Amino acid sequence: MGDAECRLLGSSEHGYLAINHEYADEGRLHRDGIADWKGARGPEKVRKSKAAHGISLIEIKKVDGEWKVLGGSRVTGLDAVEIRGPARPDS
Asked: Rounded to two decimals, what is the model's pTM?
């Protein structure tokens, strides 16, 4: 995150990085590649594929002129999330 983006968040020395894990090569992710999605291993392959996609959120802060990682987390297709604000569908 550059200084301009950090300033938009209110700080040029403390912010968050979001890394999108959008694409997984299914042929390499699974031992038998893209075969047998409907067979016995299908549910396991779906779970593994959902776990391979998501985002990583990393909190960073500039300390003595160097960026330090303060913590982080990862959200995958297996995690429950609550959608708030204008993106939330009507109940």
From this structure: 0.62
